Amino acid sequence: MTRLTKISLLTVLSMGMIVTANAMAEDKPAKGDRKARLMEMADTNGDGRISKEEREAAKAKMKEKRENKLKEIDTNGDGVISDEEKAAAKAKREEIMRKRMEKQADTNGDGVLSDDERKAMEAKIAQHKAKLLEKFDTNGDGKISDEERKAARDAHKAKMEERKKAADTDGDGKISPEERKAALEARKDKKQTTEE
Questions:
Q1: Do 136 and 144 meet the contact criterion of CB atoms below 8 Å apart?
Q2: d(Cα 70, Cα 41) in Å, to the nearest integer?
């Protein structure tokens, strides 16, 4: 398996986690939080801008994280991610997500999901899956094919570019912390309005 294939696999695994986390954390602007965390990590001098040096340092740090993640997935260390290793990584990711979802669903914070809490969580997951199928299952077969998945990724990238352009109110091609905060507030307000 080539390095590019490994990186692609890791990207797909990460996207699955992000989509699931976003679905469960509807009240939080998860993408915005991620961008804020990336800005915090990369903007080491705190000036609200990422210099060329900071960008290169952040890229190196992220590359190291990706390589470590790949090493974690490639449990036998042969440089190839086998089907068994893919399945084990998927199972581990699903277990982590299950625990996160259960923690969020535990509304009374007692560490145990009551029947009502479990039913509410399962209904939320089912609703999210139905929305995904409705949105991305263009051939109506009840599954999301590789082509449909690629189309969804492309649509997501286009949407993110659109948001970036809309957030860049001064038109300088960069999103300042103030612009980011304003964009996140606008998205939060829009979401609250549509939910009412």
A1: yes
A2: 21
- 20 token code pair: 């699931």
The boundaries of the domain holding residue 108 are 3-195
Average pLDDT over every residue of 149-165: 89
Query: How far apart are alpha carbons 51 and 188 in whole angstroms?
Result: 29
Number of domains in the chain: 1
Range from 9-18, 32-41, 165-174 carrying the lowest mean pLDDT: 9-18
Whole-prediction pTM: 0.43
- Give the three-class secondary structure for 55: helix
* Sheet strands (E) in 67-150: none
| Residue pair 17/93 in contact by the 8 Å Cβ criterion | yes
Percentage of the chain surpassing pLDDT 70? Answer: 82
Q: Which pair of tokens denotes residue 33?
A: 């939080």
